[in-house]
Amino acid sequence: MAGRFSPRPTRTSVRGGHVGVPAARVSGVAGGGRERVWAPEGPLDLGLVLGPLRRGPGDPTFRAAADGSVWRASRTPCGPGTLRVALEGSVVRAQAWGPGAEWLLERVPSLLGADDEPDAFVPRHRVVALAWHRRPGLRLTRTGLVMESLIPSILEQKVTTDEAYRAWRLLVRKFGEAAPGPGPGASGSGAFGRMFVMPDARTWGLIPSWEWHRAGVDNKRASTILRCVRVAARLEEAVFMAPAEAQARLEVVSGVGPWTSAEVVQRSHGAADAVTVGDLHLPGIVGFALAGDRDADDAVMLSLLEPYAGQRHRAARLILLSGRVPGRRAPRMPRGDIGRL
């Protein structure tokens, strides 16, 4: 799926109502959609950039198609929209459908890491330097959307990833809406059927208690989501704040702590320094990679990442991509399924 391309000079173009958008050509496409062609500066790897937005292989809002394109279904401030991005030589071709199409196309550069500053990163450990050298196309995505990362992050609190992915998949398919546009399944490349846009805040708030139960979501996580959707507009405003301020606003909601807020701003803001603390595995992985300490806790992890101040999330991602992880032990997180009780 991933591809790379080299720098290309950019220029400003004016078409389709996008005035002064760098390196873009905007036009219509089949099915009532819109299209934009964008030439980024520097190498780009679609899989690395957009991979963190995928919530499991069956995520109904995300598809990696057989032709190398990536599809996303999002709920934008302008309404639902579907975005397809693909590498074609040295450019990105983006197509979008639905009421949110223009909003999505305008933010393609940010989504693909144009706001990121990878040159500010300086490796301080050999394992990090090797991972950085081998993946020049890594950029930190910036979606500009808070709730679409907040809700699945809450679902991932204190459970296995499989349980969280299942809950997200079931709830979005049942209470979301069909994504606009043709979708990857139209050409037979969709492995999991039709795509869906996640529910709006009002619909999340109306999901009955027994449906949360059937999806395997306990009352604590469901209640946290309900508290968040009641103030969804205020939480979405956090996208205009600095990452630390955005995290503080999110954490005002009971049930949203540093782990969840960091997971959100890493995606919504492209926050290069937002470290995920409180994670079950990350401290041990960072400790093992940088100091041979597989039993490291958050304090040790933060100490080891201190040389990367301002870029600690990027350093942690590179460590995860390095493959230098401690051997597996017996699982410490018990797996349960309250939906089958």
UniProtKB/TrEMBL annotation:
Keywords: DNA damage, DNA repair
SUPFAM superfamilies the UniProt entry points to: DNA-glycosylase
Protein name: DNA-3-methyladenine glycosylase 2 family protein
